[in-house]
Write a structure and sequence with these properties.
Radius of gyration: 21 Å
Distance between the termini: 22 Å
Strand content: 15-25%
Oligomer: single chain
Number of helices: 10
């Protein structure tokens, strides 16, 4: 299952905080193996925000859970690859070593704050427990820091004694962010952090996350299906389809010049407030069955530009512009360089 089409080979001049090499994840079911992530490669540089974009079932959350090593086993199984954080392969760490990494080095914000908060404990106690788990400070000092973290996310410290049900949805998400940042992690993974919020609160939470990312000098992976969120907070974009990256590059490059038919289809299906009103284009067909993925390019049964070659071979990543990589036989004219050739 070797896959040499690494997203990161063009960025060797940057110091990478996280490198994912040839990651394969599947879920064992009675129907067969669900191929959720298929040879995925990505890099996160220090201080960079990467957006993972794609439809439901594309493998975004599975990739994040794999990095955190919180996949349910069984049925999930990482069957190949490396996840290097500061040069250490997280897949080779013991359960205890990985617990030390979570929270202290890498934190995660989940899309529904109610699944992250204990309804029978005060929010202050929950943040305090996180701090005590990863530091050697006293309970009193941990409580004071918990109150400080609430103020960092715009919640009065007096509310540390309140319970989750006493907060609105947006305020709960702020509590979750405070908890995730309480040990000053270097990498924050945000899995659809604004999905359950209304538009106004979404904007407030995103602005808060941008501010705190700069203040804490973190790297961030933003998992979303909302291209507007990507435009708001991300430096780089990785578009996922059927468990693999089909397009990767700087946010401006991918948004201004999308080269993969799937990426273009996502933009065509996005409503805008500008210009003439027209019926939204939809992506025909359905996401492929991950137990029986199509041969060749997984997108070819839904693609408007399909040709015989698309169903015969899996396209390799090619560089269409500096740092802009695409997995499509139509992405560039003949003679374009492959990423592994560029790396040489």
């Amino acid at each position: 299952m070797e896959n040499k089409n690494s997203v990161g080979t063009l960025e060797e001049n940057k110091e990478n905080l996280l490198e994912v090499h040839d990651l394969w994840v599947e879920y064992r079911t009675s129907r067969g193996a669900v191929k959720a992530v298929n040879g995925l490669n990505l890099n996160i540089a220090m201080g960079e925000t990467l957006g993972l974009v794609g439809e439901t079932g594309a493998g975004k959350s599975t990739t994040a859970f794999g990095i955190m090593r919180i996949l349910p086993d069984p049925p999930a199984k990482i069957t190949g690859g490396e996840i290097l954080y500061k040069g250490r392969d997280l897949l080779k760490l013991s359960a205890k070593e990985m617990r030390d990494v979570r929270g202290e080095e890498i934190s995660m914000i989940f899309q529904d704050p109610m699944t992250s908060l204990d309804p029978v404990k005060t929010v202050g106690n929950q943040i305090q427990e996180m701090i005590e788990l990863h530091t050697d400070i006293s309970s009193k000092e941990a409580w004071t820091r918990a109150e400080d973290m609430l103020e960092v996310v715009g919640i009065k410290r007096e509310r540390a004694n309140d319970y989750p049900h006493q907060f609105s949805g947006g305020m709960k998400q702020r509590v979750v962010i405070a908890m995730a940042l309480s040990c000053n992690p270097k990498l924050l993974i945000a899995d659809e952090p604004t999905t359950a919020l209304d538009v106004t609160i979404q904007a407030q939470v995103l602005e808060l996350m941008k501010k705190l990312k700069a203040e804490y000098r973190m790297s961030m992976i933003m998992i979303t299906h909302d291209l507007g969120v990507v435009a708001e907070v991300c430096d780089k974009v990785a578009v996922l389809y059927a468990g693999n990256i089909v397009e990767y590059g700087a946010m401006e490059d991918v948004f201004d010049d999308p080269r993969h038919p799937y990426t273009r289809a996502l933009f065509d299906a996005t409503p805008t407030l500008d210009g003439e009103k027209h019926k939204l284009n939809i992506i025909k067909g359905f996401s492929p069955d991950p137990i029986h993925l199509p041969e060749g390019c997984a997108f070819h049964p839904r693609c408007k530009e399909v040709c015989d070659k698309c169903s015969a071979v899996m396209p390799e990543m090619v560089e269409v512009a500096p740092g802009h990589l695409v997995r499509c036989v139509h992405a560039v004219p003949c003679g374009a360089e492959k990423t592994e050739e560029v790396a040489e």
